[in-house]
Amino acid sequence: MVVNASDSASQGEEQLLTKPEVARLLRVRSKTIERFMSQRDLPYIKLGRLVRYERAAVEAFKQRLTVGATNSPGGTAPGA
């Protein structure tokens, strides 16, 4: 399999997302992404005036926010 430099570059570019792309991925408004940035919850990359987000970092952020279900007998939550 031959991979040329332009293929590798385009794959790398796909891994960097813009704020609207991240907002769409997380299904929130851009303002929410700005809040995550200011609270240093969501890592980002500054390229001069441009801000980009690594797809892997966004996915890891999403995993940290995911609340898992608990298995309890009878299918009810503890304390319910």
Note the topology.
Elements: H1 5-14, E1 16-17, H2 19-26, H3 30-38, E2 45-47, E3 50-54, H4 55-65
Antiparallel strand pairs: 1-3, 2-3
Helix pairs in contact: 2-3
Question: How would you explain this protein's 3D organization?
Answer:
- By secondary structure, this protein is of the alpha+beta class.
- Helix content is 48%, strand content 12%.
- It is built from four helices and three strands.
- It has helices at 5-14, 19-26, 30-38, 55-65; strands at 16-17, 45-47, 50-54.
- Strands 1-3-2 form a three-stranded antiparallel β-sheet.
- Helix 2 crosses helix 3 (30-38).
- The radius of gyration is 18 Å and the shape is elongated.
- Residues 1-9 have low confidence and may be disordered.
